[in-house]
Structure to design on (338 residues):
């Protein structure tokens, strides 16, 4: 090989060696920044809450408004049932409440003045008959004493007088009851019946409201299970929703490091897809019970050991964290407040 070619080859190898050395130094510095000193590194998996959504009442599914993968906001109408049967039940309950209210008002108001006046007139009529019967009895007594009337006729006059007395007493009592109004027990029963009617109306209104399926919180539709026209029951699932909050990380720590952890400690979470973009979180749960290392958990020591389960709550919404995703957790040790 000519001397010039040998010299060029040596220079090229020297440039490559310098570049590799510079890359190694730079990579080491980046790694040092991502994994700070005096920190505990754990490995875990993202745990996203999921909820199965359905109706509390049975009916015919009328609308289904979202497809799989769509984002929904809390309170958004996701699906609805045919509301006509529930509206009819509510109208029946409203009519029953109106009837019971009218009945209670009647009990509280008492009897009408014309009814009381009629009862008073019946008392006066009975009193007039009583006066006539007593006059007839006195005359019969005189005739009986003079021997002009047989005893049987006198007995009839006595009976007629007693009947007239009883009619006066009955008419007077009827008049007194009308003036006093209804019994307190009847009024209490009327109030109870009104309360029962209102409770049935509330139940009907609740059932009508339950024909609308609202998103309980922000989330992403994982599954759309039913389609319009299907007859569904309260146990049927319409959607499976993956909630965007709260997002947890399930990790495990060995017993020697357990004493360095405290609830509420700030942590950072990174994923393999975005190792340079840590997400803030805090330690929300430390299991009081030891367990054997799950096979899916990565640790620095590849051996079976007793560990404690941790729950790290992610404080920042991050759409890049998905259910089951492996992540790395960095927990500063010896930091203020730790």
């Amino acid at each position: 090989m000519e001397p010039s070619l040998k010299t060029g080859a040596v220079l090229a190898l020297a440039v490559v060696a310098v570049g590799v050395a510079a890359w190694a130094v730079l990579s080491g510095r980046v790694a040092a920044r991502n994994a700070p000193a005096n920190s505990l590194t754990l490995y875990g998996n993202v745990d996203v809450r999921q909820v199965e959504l359905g109706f509390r009442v049975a009916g015919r599914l009328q609308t289904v408004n979202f497809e799989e993968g769509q984002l929904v906001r809390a309170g958004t109408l996701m699906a609805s049932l045919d509301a006509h049967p529930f509206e009819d039940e509510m109208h029946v309950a409203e009519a029953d409440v109106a009837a019971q209210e009218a009945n209670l008002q009647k009990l509280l108001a008492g009897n009408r003045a014309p009814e009381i006046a009629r009862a008073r007139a019946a008392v006066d009529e009975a009193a007039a008959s009583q006066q006539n019967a007593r006059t007839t009895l006195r005359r019969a007594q005189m005739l009986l004493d003079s021997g002009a009337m047989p005893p049987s006729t006198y007995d009839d006059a006595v009976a007629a007088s007693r009947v007239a007395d009883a009619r006066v007493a009955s008419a007077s009592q009827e008049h007194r009851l009308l003036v006093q109004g209804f019994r307190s027990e009847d009024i209490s029963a009327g109030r109870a019946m009104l309360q029962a009617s209102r409770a049935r109306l509330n139940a009907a209104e609740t059932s009508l409201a339950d024909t609308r399926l609202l998103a309980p919180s922000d989330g992403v539709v994982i599954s759309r299970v039913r389609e319009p026209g299907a007859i569904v029951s309260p146990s049927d699932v319409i959607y499976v929703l993956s909630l965007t909050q709260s997002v947890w990380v399930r990790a495990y720590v060995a017993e020697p490091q357990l004493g360095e952890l405290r609830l509420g400690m700030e942590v950072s979470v990174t994923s393999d897809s975005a190792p340079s973009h840590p997400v803030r979180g805090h330690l929300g749960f430390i299991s009081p019970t030891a367990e054997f290392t799950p096979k899916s958990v990565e640790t620095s020591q590849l051996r079976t050991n007793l560990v404690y389960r941790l729950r790290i709550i992610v404080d920042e919404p991050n759409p890049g964290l998905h259910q089951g995703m492996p992540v790395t957790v960095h927990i500063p040790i010896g930091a203020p407040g730790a």
